[in-house]
Amino acid sequence: MLGQTLRAAGKLRPADPGGQEAGNLAASTAPGKPSGGSLLEESARELRGRFVSASAFLEPDARGLLPGMVTGDTSALDEGLNNAMKAVGMTHLTAVSGANCSLVLGALLLLCRWFRLPRAPAAAAALGGLALFVVLVGPDASVLRAALMGAIGVASLAGGRSGRGLSFLCLAVLGLLLADPALGTSFGFLLSVLATLGIILIGRRIISWIPAAVPRWLAAAVAVPLSAQLLCGPVIVLLQPQFSTYSLAANVVASPLVAPVTLLGTAAVPLVVVLPWGAAALIAVAGTFSAGVAATARIAAQLPGSALPWPEGVPGILSMVLLSVLSLAVVGAAARPLRLIRWVRTAHAGTVVFLELLEVRLHRFRGVRSLDPGHRRGRLGYCNKTSGRNCRWPLRKSGHPAPKRPTQPPGGT
Fold it and tell me: What is the C-alpha to C-alpha distance for residues 128 and 108, in angstroms, rounded to an integer?
């Protein structure tokens, strides 16, 4: 665990370049019993273990997925389900991610508002609960990013100031990289930042494109995973060179199930110790929703063409960037067809005006060149005698013959 000490003998070797390790120890003795560590970390480990044991009565898929989505413990996750979720682009749901932090923080703020707490105590209570949740699930890169963004946002609101999501994201990224520069080499941290950036920059725009007749929750359910995938796609192909055909549809179907799993499961964690039967009831309900997430992943993974091969390396990145841009353009065109028609008509009118101006300039250019008597157009003139007589000169384009050439006098050379 974080903060514990292990003692072992062995040979110390340099770490691999680009890694987060300070070195590699080829141990010649077995490590002793871990010592040290904070009481908070030990309590969190105990709670995670008890939650896994309390979920043992669920079906196999729910039994393995629920602890991962609530506490980040994936020890009971079935390998087949894990592969299915990878194939359909749902790996962010196998363990706790930034979305879970956002849900927990939002629930804590609503709870504080329900109790009518003043602004400062409500902010302190929400941040305290968020800190305990981070300790429970572990300091994963995406969790730290979401927690710090939430902390900045809550502190800003407590101070009577409102900010923008992009500002919070920039502050969170800068703070985490200054505290731990090794996060710059973490793909999990990069994907978390890109997903959040896509939701902030593109997600809101896509929601505004969707007609008002569509419920906002449904518009957000489509816009959030789509915007995150558009920015994360070029990086994902580096880790897994394949295209998940049904990723968007699977995430849209599973998105309403994530909030009940997170909130009910998190509420059940402390009840495992103080009120086991209450925890069992919440786990049963949360397990039903997590089983729905698992079923969505398995069904989507079994559909034909669920995982298509994709180029590796730089070609794969560039082609995925192009696909993301085209996808965004298609979504915008489908959401606002009238605006697309107006844009096409405007582009057509501008093209016509440009061609007309180009034609006028070409006519003027040809007219100026035609005034030059030394300039000949068309075929070259020729003479069939060396004396210069019987020469033929091509007609001008206007039909008038070229000026006559002076002829040599008889007997001239």
Answer: 10
**pLDDT tens readout for residues 122-136:** 888 888 888 888 888
Burial of 186 (0-12, 13-18, 19+ CB in 10 A): middle
DSSP state, residue 200: I
pTM of the model: 0.74
Q: Residue 25: exposed, middle, or buried by beta-carbon count in 10 A (0-12, 13-18, 19+)? A: middle
Token code pair at residue 198: 């896509």
CA distances from 301 to 19, 80, 85 (A): 33, 10, 8
Residues in contact with 348: Cβ distance below 8 Å, sequence separation at least 6, in sequence order = none
Angle, alpha carbons 350-353-354 (nearest 5°): 85
Residue 290, strand partner residues: none
pLDDT tens by residue, 36-85: 777 788 888 888 889 999 998 999 899 999 999 998 888 888 888 888 88
Residue in 97, 107, 296 with CA at minimum distance from that of residue 195? 97
